[in-house]
Amino acid sequence: MTSKIPNSIDATLDMLNAADYVADRSLATVLYLSLKMQRPLFLEGEAGVGKTEIAKVLADQLKRPLIRLQCYEGLDISSAVYEWNYAAQMVEIRMREASGDTNKDAMEDGVFSERFLIRRPLLQALQQVEGVAPVLLIDELDRTDEAFEAFLLEVLSEFQVTIPELGTIKAKEPPIVIVTTNRTREIHDALKRRCLYHWVDYPDASRELDIVRKKVPDADKALTEEIVAYVQALRTKELFKNPGIAETLDWATALMELDKVALDPQAISDTLGVLLKYQDDIAQIQGSEGAEILQQIKSEARSEGALAGAGTPSI
Protein backbone atom coordinates (compact mmCIF):
# COMPACT_ATOMS: atom_id res chain seq x y z
CA MET A 1 0.00 0.00 0.00
CA THR A 2 1.40 3.38 -1.05
CA SER A 3 1.95 6.22 1.39
CA LYS A 4 0.49 9.67 0.87
CA ILE A 5 2.44 12.42 -0.83
CA PRO A 6 3.74 14.94 1.78
CA ASN A 7 1.32 17.86 2.16
CA SER A 8 3.90 20.55 2.98
CA ILE A 9 7.58 21.42 2.70
CA ASP A 10 8.08 20.59 6.38
CA ALA A 11 6.42 17.20 5.86
CA THR A 12 8.78 16.60 2.92
CA LEU A 13 11.76 17.42 5.15
CA ASP A 14 10.42 15.03 7.78
CA MET A 15 10.07 12.30 5.16
CA LEU A 16 13.67 12.75 4.04
CA ASN A 17 14.93 12.86 7.63
CA ALA A 18 13.02 9.65 8.41
CA ALA A 19 15.20 7.95 5.79
CA ASP A 20 18.37 9.57 7.21
CA TYR A 21 18.66 11.84 4.16
CA VAL A 22 19.82 15.22 5.44
CA ALA A 23 18.47 17.83 3.00
CA ASP A 24 18.33 21.61 3.04
CA ARG A 25 15.02 23.43 2.71
CA SER A 26 15.55 24.42 -0.93
CA LEU A 27 15.79 20.77 -1.98
CA ALA A 28 12.75 19.84 0.11
CA THR A 29 10.81 22.69 -1.49
CA VAL A 30 11.48 21.69 -5.09
CA LEU A 31 10.85 18.03 -4.26
CA TYR A 32 7.52 18.90 -2.64
CA LEU A 33 6.51 20.96 -5.70
CA SER A 34 7.57 18.18 -8.05
CA LEU A 35 5.34 15.70 -6.22
CA LYS A 36 2.35 18.06 -6.00
CA MET A 37 2.57 19.30 -9.59
CA GLN A 38 3.40 15.83 -10.98
CA ARG A 39 6.39 17.22 -12.81
CA PRO A 40 9.73 15.44 -13.32
CA LEU A 41 12.54 16.65 -11.07
CA PHE A 42 15.85 17.35 -12.81
CA LEU A 43 18.78 17.08 -10.37
CA GLU A 44 22.18 18.31 -11.45
CA GLY A 45 25.42 18.24 -9.50
CA GLU A 46 28.78 16.58 -9.02
CA ALA A 47 28.99 12.80 -8.68
CA GLY A 48 28.49 11.52 -5.14
CA VAL A 49 26.40 14.36 -3.70
CA GLY A 50 23.25 12.27 -3.18
CA LYS A 51 21.14 12.78 -6.32
CA THR A 52 20.39 9.11 -6.97
CA GLU A 53 19.68 8.53 -3.28
CA ILE A 54 16.68 10.88 -3.47
CA ALA A 55 14.85 8.50 -5.81
CA LYS A 56 15.63 5.57 -3.51
CA VAL A 57 14.32 7.49 -0.50
CA LEU A 58 11.09 8.39 -2.32
CA ALA A 59 10.47 4.78 -3.33
CA ASP A 60 11.11 3.59 0.21
CA GLN A 61 9.11 6.26 2.04
CA LEU A 62 6.15 6.34 -0.38
CA LYS A 63 6.09 2.53 -0.64
CA ARG A 64 6.39 2.53 -4.41
CA PRO A 65 8.46 0.34 -6.73
CA LEU A 66 11.69 1.90 -7.98
CA ILE A 67 12.42 1.54 -11.70
CA ARG A 68 15.93 2.63 -12.65
CA LEU A 69 17.11 3.45 -16.15
CA GLN A 70 20.90 3.65 -15.93
CA CYS A 71 22.03 5.75 -18.88
CA TYR A 72 25.13 5.07 -20.94
CA GLU A 73 26.59 5.98 -24.31
CA GLY A 74 24.65 4.24 -27.09
CA LEU A 75 21.48 3.71 -25.05
CA ASP A 76 18.59 3.26 -27.48
CA ILE A 77 14.84 2.62 -27.51
CA SER A 78 15.19 -1.19 -27.53
CA SER A 79 17.12 -1.03 -24.24
CA ALA A 80 15.20 1.83 -22.62
CA VAL A 81 11.59 1.43 -23.79
CA TYR A 82 10.69 -1.84 -25.51
CA GLU A 83 11.65 -4.49 -28.01
CA TRP A 84 9.92 -7.46 -29.58
CA ASN A 85 10.63 -11.03 -28.53
CA TYR A 86 11.82 -12.09 -31.96
CA ALA A 87 12.55 -15.70 -31.00
CA ALA A 88 9.02 -16.21 -29.64
CA GLN A 89 7.57 -14.47 -32.69
CA MET A 90 9.42 -16.87 -35.04
CA VAL A 91 8.12 -19.86 -33.09
CA GLU A 92 4.57 -18.48 -33.37
CA ILE A 93 4.96 -17.98 -37.14
CA ARG A 94 6.28 -21.53 -37.64
CA MET A 95 3.42 -22.98 -35.57
CA ARG A 96 0.83 -21.06 -37.61
CA GLU A 97 2.41 -22.18 -40.87
CA ALA A 98 2.48 -25.79 -39.68
CA SER A 99 -1.23 -25.62 -38.83
CA GLY A 100 -2.03 -24.24 -42.30
CA ASP A 101 -2.79 -20.69 -41.14
CA THR A 102 -1.23 -18.52 -43.85
CA ASN A 103 -3.34 -15.37 -43.45
CA LYS A 104 -0.62 -12.72 -43.42
CA ASP A 105 -2.74 -9.98 -41.82
CA ALA A 106 -3.89 -12.23 -39.00
CA MET A 107 -0.36 -13.52 -38.50
CA GLU A 108 1.03 -9.99 -38.30
CA ASP A 109 -1.63 -8.94 -35.78
CA GLY A 110 -0.88 -12.05 -33.75
CA VAL A 111 2.88 -11.69 -33.49
CA PHE A 112 2.83 -7.93 -32.94
CA SER A 113 0.69 -8.09 -29.82
CA GLU A 114 1.49 -7.32 -26.20
CA ARG A 115 2.12 -11.02 -25.62
CA PHE A 116 5.43 -10.68 -27.47
CA LEU A 117 6.35 -7.25 -26.12
CA ILE A 118 9.40 -7.02 -23.86
CA ARG A 119 8.94 -4.02 -21.58
CA ARG A 120 12.04 -2.05 -20.71
CA PRO A 121 12.23 0.50 -17.82
CA LEU A 122 10.41 3.45 -19.43
CA LEU A 123 7.47 1.35 -20.62
CA GLN A 124 7.32 -0.47 -17.27
CA ALA A 125 7.05 2.88 -15.51
CA LEU A 126 4.20 4.06 -17.74
CA GLN A 127 2.20 0.84 -17.43
CA GLN A 128 2.61 0.80 -13.63
CA VAL A 129 4.06 -1.87 -11.42
CA GLU A 130 1.90 -3.80 -8.96
CA GLY A 131 -0.99 -1.46 -9.78
CA VAL A 132 0.69 1.73 -8.54
CA ALA A 133 2.68 4.45 -10.29
CA PRO A 134 6.35 3.80 -9.52
CA VAL A 135 9.33 6.06 -8.95
CA LEU A 136 11.22 6.29 -12.24
CA LEU A 137 14.92 7.14 -11.92
CA ILE A 138 16.62 8.22 -15.16
CA ASP A 139 20.17 8.20 -13.87
CA GLU A 140 23.13 10.08 -15.41
CA LEU A 141 21.27 11.33 -18.48
CA ASP A 142 24.37 13.21 -19.62
CA ARG A 143 25.95 9.87 -20.58
CA THR A 144 23.46 9.39 -23.44
CA ASP A 145 23.41 11.17 -26.80
CA GLU A 146 21.12 13.96 -27.98
CA ALA A 147 18.94 11.60 -30.05
CA PHE A 148 17.83 9.68 -26.96
CA GLU A 149 17.43 12.92 -25.05
CA ALA A 150 15.03 14.12 -27.80
CA PHE A 151 13.03 10.89 -27.53
CA LEU A 152 12.49 11.56 -23.83
CA LEU A 153 10.57 14.76 -24.57
CA GLU A 154 7.35 12.82 -25.25
CA VAL A 155 7.84 10.66 -22.16
CA LEU A 156 8.48 13.57 -19.78
CA SER A 157 5.82 15.94 -21.15
CA GLU A 158 2.91 13.58 -21.93
CA PHE A 159 3.92 10.50 -19.92
CA GLN A 160 3.39 8.36 -23.00
CA VAL A 161 5.33 6.46 -25.66
CA THR A 162 4.34 5.52 -29.18
CA ILE A 163 4.90 1.98 -30.45
CA PRO A 164 4.23 1.85 -34.21
CA GLU A 165 2.67 -1.62 -34.13
CA LEU A 166 0.44 -0.94 -31.09
CA GLY A 167 -0.13 2.83 -31.04
CA THR A 168 0.31 5.24 -28.14
CA ILE A 169 0.58 3.91 -24.60
CA LYS A 170 -0.18 6.55 -21.96
CA ALA A 171 0.25 6.28 -18.19
CA LYS A 172 -3.00 6.11 -16.20
CA GLU A 173 -1.15 7.83 -13.36
CA PRO A 174 2.16 9.65 -14.02
CA PRO A 175 5.16 8.04 -12.34
CA ILE A 176 7.31 10.08 -9.99
CA VAL A 177 10.27 10.94 -12.21
CA ILE A 178 13.78 11.84 -11.01
CA VAL A 179 16.34 12.73 -13.70
CA THR A 180 19.98 13.07 -12.67
CA THR A 181 23.05 14.38 -14.48
CA ASN A 182 26.67 14.89 -13.47
CA ARG A 183 26.97 17.71 -16.02
CA THR A 184 29.61 16.05 -18.19
CA ARG A 185 27.69 17.72 -21.03
CA GLU A 186 24.85 20.22 -21.22
CA ILE A 187 21.29 18.90 -21.46
CA HIS A 188 19.06 20.64 -24.01
CA ASP A 189 16.73 23.37 -22.75
CA ALA A 190 13.71 21.61 -24.29
CA LEU A 191 14.09 18.74 -21.83
CA LYS A 192 14.83 20.98 -18.86
CA ARG A 193 11.65 22.98 -19.52
CA ARG A 194 9.61 19.85 -18.87
CA CYS A 195 11.12 19.48 -15.41
CA LEU A 196 11.61 21.33 -12.17
CA TYR A 197 15.31 21.98 -11.62
CA HIS A 198 17.63 21.82 -8.63
CA TRP A 199 21.40 21.97 -8.29
CA VAL A 200 22.56 19.53 -5.61
CA ASP A 201 25.73 21.01 -4.12
CA TYR A 202 28.27 19.67 -1.68
CA PRO A 203 26.97 20.08 1.87
CA ASP A 204 28.43 22.58 4.28
CA ALA A 205 30.39 21.27 7.27
CA SER A 206 27.42 21.22 9.65
CA ARG A 207 25.17 19.26 7.29
CA GLU A 208 27.93 16.87 6.26
CA LEU A 209 28.69 16.17 9.92
CA ASP A 210 25.02 15.40 10.48
CA ILE A 211 25.03 13.04 7.47
CA VAL A 212 28.08 11.12 8.66
CA ARG A 213 26.68 10.77 12.19
CA LYS A 214 23.44 9.38 10.81
CA LYS A 215 25.00 7.03 8.26
CA VAL A 216 28.03 5.89 10.30
CA PRO A 217 26.74 6.19 13.87
CA ASP A 218 29.38 3.90 15.39
CA ALA A 219 32.31 6.11 14.34
CA ASP A 220 34.12 7.95 17.11
CA LYS A 221 32.73 11.46 17.60
CA ALA A 222 36.11 13.20 17.45
CA LEU A 223 37.13 11.16 14.40
CA THR A 224 33.91 12.08 12.62
CA GLU A 225 34.55 15.77 13.21
CA GLU A 226 38.11 15.48 11.90
CA ILE A 227 36.98 13.54 8.82
CA VAL A 228 34.42 16.18 7.88
CA ALA A 229 36.86 19.02 8.51
CA TYR A 230 39.49 17.29 6.36
CA VAL A 231 37.09 16.62 3.48
CA GLN A 232 35.77 20.16 3.61
CA ALA A 233 39.34 21.45 3.36
CA LEU A 234 40.09 19.07 0.47
CA ARG A 235 37.25 20.57 -1.55
CA THR A 236 38.99 23.96 -1.48
CA LYS A 237 42.05 22.48 -3.22
CA GLU A 238 42.54 22.22 -6.96
CA LEU A 239 41.77 18.52 -7.34
CA PHE A 240 40.70 16.74 -10.50
CA LYS A 241 37.71 15.25 -8.64
CA ASN A 242 36.58 16.48 -5.25
CA PRO A 243 35.33 13.79 -2.86
CA GLY A 244 31.55 13.60 -2.62
CA ILE A 245 29.39 12.64 0.33
CA ALA A 246 29.56 9.00 -0.74
CA GLU A 247 33.37 9.09 -0.44
CA THR A 248 33.17 10.81 2.95
CA LEU A 249 30.93 8.01 4.23
CA ASP A 250 33.19 5.32 2.76
CA TRP A 251 36.23 6.94 4.38
CA ALA A 252 34.54 7.16 7.77
CA THR A 253 33.56 3.49 7.53
CA ALA A 254 37.07 2.46 6.45
CA LEU A 255 38.76 4.35 9.31
CA MET A 256 36.29 2.89 11.78
CA GLU A 257 37.09 -0.62 10.51
CA LEU A 258 40.77 0.16 11.18
CA ASP A 259 39.85 1.11 14.78
CA LYS A 260 40.99 4.69 14.33
CA VAL A 261 39.83 7.30 16.83
CA ALA A 262 41.69 10.23 15.27
CA LEU A 263 43.33 11.15 11.98
CA ASP A 264 47.09 10.77 11.64
CA PRO A 265 49.40 11.07 8.60
CA GLN A 266 49.84 7.31 8.24
CA ALA A 267 46.11 6.55 8.40
CA ILE A 268 45.41 9.23 5.79
CA SER A 269 48.14 7.96 3.47
CA ASP A 270 46.96 4.35 3.79
CA THR A 271 43.31 5.12 3.05
CA LEU A 272 43.38 7.95 0.50
CA GLY A 273 42.27 5.50 -2.20
CA VAL A 274 38.92 5.30 -0.43
CA LEU A 275 38.49 9.07 -0.55
CA LEU A 276 40.14 10.09 -3.83
CA LYS A 277 39.82 8.27 -7.15
CA TYR A 278 42.61 9.76 -9.28
CA GLN A 279 46.32 9.08 -8.78
CA ASP A 280 47.34 12.71 -9.39
CA ASP A 281 45.00 13.81 -6.59
CA ILE A 282 46.31 11.11 -4.26
CA ALA A 283 49.93 12.06 -4.99
CA GLN A 284 49.15 15.72 -4.30
CA ILE A 285 47.51 15.05 -0.92
CA GLN A 286 50.07 12.45 0.18
CA GLY A 287 52.67 15.19 0.05
CA SER A 288 53.10 18.34 2.09
CA GLU A 289 49.68 19.70 1.13
CA GLY A 290 47.88 16.86 2.90
CA ALA A 291 50.07 17.27 5.99
CA GLU A 292 49.28 20.97 6.11
CA ILE A 293 45.53 20.25 5.99
CA LEU A 294 45.82 17.83 8.92
CA GLN A 295 47.93 20.27 10.94
CA GLN A 296 45.42 23.04 10.23
CA ILE A 297 42.33 21.12 11.36
CA LYS A 298 44.14 19.83 14.49
CA SER A 299 45.14 23.39 15.35
CA GLU A 300 41.60 24.68 14.82
CA ALA A 301 40.20 21.89 16.98
CA ARG A 302 42.61 22.76 19.81
CA SER A 303 41.68 26.45 19.56
CA GLU A 304 37.97 25.66 19.73
CA GLY A 305 38.56 23.38 22.71
CA ALA A 306 40.52 26.06 24.51
CA LEU A 307 37.76 28.62 23.92
CA ALA A 308 35.13 26.20 25.13
CA GLY A 309 37.16 25.42 28.26
CA ALA A 310 37.68 29.09 29.03
CA GLY A 311 33.97 29.70 29.18
CA THR A 312 32.48 33.20 29.27
CA PRO A 313 34.87 35.74 30.86
CA SER A 314 33.57 37.50 33.93
CA ILE A 315 32.97 41.24 33.85
Compact summary:
The protein is of the alpha/beta class and 315 residues long.
Q: Which fold name fills CATH's third level, the topology of the largest domain? A: Rossmann fold
* The top level CATH class name of the largest domain: Alpha Beta
The CA-CA distance between the termini, in Å, is 63 Å
Biggest sheet record: 5 strands, parallel
Tally of discrete structural domains: 3
Describe, in plain words, how this protein is organized in 3D.
The protein is of the alpha/beta class. It contains 15 helices and 9 strands. It folds into 3 domains: 138 residues, Rossmann fold, CATH 3.40.50.300; 38 residues, no CATH class; 94 residues. It has a 5-stranded parallel β-sheet. The chain has a two-stranded antiparallel ribbon with strand order 3-4. It is elongated. The termini are far apart.
Tags for this model:
about 325 residues, Rossmann fold, 3 domains, about 10% strand, elongated
Which helices and strands, and how do they pair?
Layout: H1 9-18, H2 25-37, E1 41-44, H3 51-61, E2 66-70, H4 77-80, E3 82-84, H5 86-98, H6 104-111, E4 117-119, H7 121-126, E5 135-139, H8 146-158, E6 160-163, E7 167-170, E8 176-181, H9 189-192, E9 196-199, H10 205-215, H11 221-234, H12 245-257, H13 265-275, H14 279-286, H15 288-310
Parallel strand pairs: 1-8, 1-9, 2-5, 5-8
Antiparallel strand pairs: 3-4, 6-7
Helix pairs in contact: 1-2, 10-11, 10-12, 11-15, 12-13
